[in-house]
């Protein structure tokens, strides 16, 4: 897999969770200190035109592209032994890699343990998502499931409260007790969270936004929800 951008690449080097296969650096670009321990044989200096042949032309690479081993996705059965204050999120119908990356970055900032994606109706980790995650990908476990509805049932068996967050919620997010093991479901604009996902949730909540303009991008909504959960967990 290819990733690019200073923050994403630095995080891979520092956290050492993934094998680095090759690093492409822009000629005449300032040297990155976090690469000091990388063997010279793994570095290749190329020009801008060559960079654009490796990644999309519109990609903001900041002078570094890294080829790493493919992303390994977790199995949700691992969550059976999760700690008492574990927080996870399910992204239902989130198909924009930039939104996914932004959510991963926010999740890492607020101590979210893992994110569950649907095999069929969610985007996966792409170079664009990794760039938007800005290094957060190294701090979050990513799970891929075939069936969101069945996964919700399994997660509830593991002791998680399941909360769907959408505009049709009958409670505000801060009115619900979010301590303990919590799984929050977020959906993208348009299709949003599927009906069955909401029906299987313990609570369906909403964010107290302006009644004249209530819509939020899913990554912005995630930031508000993750903050509220982290705040309650810290008390």
Tell me what the structure shows.
By secondary structure, the protein is an alpha/beta fold. The chain has two domains: 2-68, Ribosomal protein L30/S12 (60s Ribosomal Protein L30, Chain: A, 2-Layer Sandwich); 76-234, SPOUT methyltransferase, trefoil knot domain (Alpha/beta knot, 3-Layer(aba) Sandwich), CATH 3.40.1280. It is built from seven helices and eleven strands. It has helices at 6-15, 48-54, 97-109, 127-133, 148-157, 195-199, 218-234; strands at residues 2-4, 20-26, 43-46, 64-68, 87-92, 114-118, 141-145, 161-165, 171-172, 182-187, 203-206. The strands form two sheets. Strands 7-6-5-10-8-11-9 form a seven-stranded parallel β-sheet, with helices on both faces. Strand 6 (114-118), helix 4 (127-133) and strand 7 form a beta-alpha-beta unit. Helix 3 runs parallel beside helix 4 and helix 3 (97-109) packs parallel to helix 7 (218-234). It starts with a strand and ends with a helix. The model has no long low-confidence stretch (mean pLDDT 90).
């Amino acid at each position: 897999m290819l990733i690019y951008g200073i923050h994403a690449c630095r995080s891979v080097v520092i956290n050492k969770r993934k094998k680095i296969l090759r690093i492409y650096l822009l000629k005449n670009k300032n040297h990155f200190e976090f690469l000091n321990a990388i063997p010279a044989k793994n570095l290749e200096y190329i020009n801008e035109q060559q960079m654009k042949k490796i990644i999309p032309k519109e990609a903001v690479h900041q002078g570094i592209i890294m080829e790493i081993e493919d992303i390994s996705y977790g199995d949700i059965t691992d969550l059976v032994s999760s700690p008492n204050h574990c927080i996870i999120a399910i992204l239902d119908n989130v198909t924009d890699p930039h939104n996914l990356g932004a959510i991963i970055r926010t999740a890492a900032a607020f101590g979210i343990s893992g994110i569950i994606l649907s095999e069929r109706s969610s985007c996966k980790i792409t170079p664009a998502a990794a760039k938007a995650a800005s290094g957060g990908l190294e701090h979050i476990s990513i799970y891929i499931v075939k069936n969101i509805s069945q996964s919700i049932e399994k997660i509830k068996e593991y002791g998680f409260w399941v909360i769907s967050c959408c505009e049709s919620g009958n409670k505000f997010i801060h009115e619900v007790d979010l301590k303990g093991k919590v799984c929050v479901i977020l959906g993208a604009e348009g299709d949003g969270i599927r009906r069955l996902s909401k029906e299987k949730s313990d609570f369906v909540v909403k964010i107290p936004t302006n009644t004249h303009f209530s819509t939020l991008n899913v990554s912005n909504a995630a930031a508000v929800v993750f903050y509220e959960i982290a705040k309650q967990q810290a008390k």
